[in-house]
Amino acid sequence: MGETMALFVPAEPGPPDEVKRWVRTIGGAESNVACNLPTLGIRSGWVSAVGDDPFGRAMLREVASHGVDVSACVVDPARPTGLYVKESGAGGSPVRYYRAGSAASGMGPSLLDRLDLDGVRVLHLSGITPALSDSCLALVRALLELPRGDRLISFDVNLRPALWTGRDPGLLAELAAQADIVLTGDDEAQRVWGTGDPAELRALLPQPRTLVVKHGERGATLVEGEPLFAPALKVDVVEPVGAGDAFAAGFLAATLRGATPLERLRQGHLQAAVTLLTHDDVGVPLPSAVVDTLLHADPDEWRSARLTGEGVVRT
Fold first, then answer.
1. Which end of the chain lies in a sparser environment, N or C, as judged by fewer CB atoms within 10 Å?
2. How many CA atoms lie within 13 A of 291 on its CB side?
């Protein structure tokens, strides 16, 4: 559940005030997770609100094209679909957001009336949604307070400093403490909890069953008992955007399948790696035989593997 926006990327070089041609795509952390899951054999749905406009219709169509159920999304007749603009086509380029007053920012607890959570095994939220508006914060709190049964709530901190201007990002710590699975980058954790160290973070966040701390290109640590670190797969990076969402999808898919702790981290790394190889937010799945080999590789074999546009090579 969360906002996805229309994304405009320059189709030609030059400063943004001189660019005349743009490519329109979409971008959103939670929908990225939803779109990755079907490639891993997991059924998913995306819940959000879009404007009754061409961007909103395109968004619903594109997310659904990945096999995602979008039937619970709201089409708001009064508020527009949010959008953002990348100032250049390069990875990591500056981004300008135009999301104030967007349809998704109008989401609130009344959205619960549209949701059928029967049979839902994981509800994935992020720290972006509560930063959009007071009503979105109330929605996230209401979701965290619902009876869960066997359903898990996954919470990706996804700190966006620009959204927290004048507000206390420490609120994310309160929300994360109510989830079953928490994913965070060590840099994000440093800003929210004052530490990016997995053991120290676990002491500050004892409630969730599962804590995953991502360390960028180094790897990730899973804390469900003793911390377990798994190095990331080496990859020829084309575009870094979307890799964290892909990691979350891979980790959640492996968790739902009852995989071992190491396999869960490696599945996250593999899904992130195929996304890093493309400008798209969902990469082309690796052959199942390659995935199986890497998931069960010994530490030396894993460390020597490198994912390129040509496939897996040994270094």
1. C
2. 20
* Secondary-structure breakdown of the chain: helix, strand, coil percentages, each rounded to the nearest 5: 40, 20, 40
- Is the domain covering 29-50+105-314 a CATH 3.40.1190.20 domain? yes
> Minimal CA–CA distance to 162: which of 244, 95, 92, 243?
95
43 Cβ contact partners less than 8 Å away, ≥ 6 residues apart: 37, 67, 69
Least Cα distance to 186 among 176, 195, 196, 194 occurs for 196
Residue 269 · residue 280 · CB < 8 Å: no
Element (DSSP H or E) covering residue 32: helix 29-36
Length in residues, the chain: 315
Rounded to an integer, what distance in angstroms lies between the CA atom of residue 33 and that of residue 63?
11
Tens of pLDDT, residue by residue over 275-292, are: 888 877 788 888 899 899
DSSP H or E segment with residue 314: strand 311-314
Q: List the chain domain ranges.
A: 1-28+51-104, 29-50+105-314
Q: pLDDT per residue over 114-145, tens digit each? A: 899 999 999 999 999 999 999 999 999 999 99
245 labelled catalytic: yes
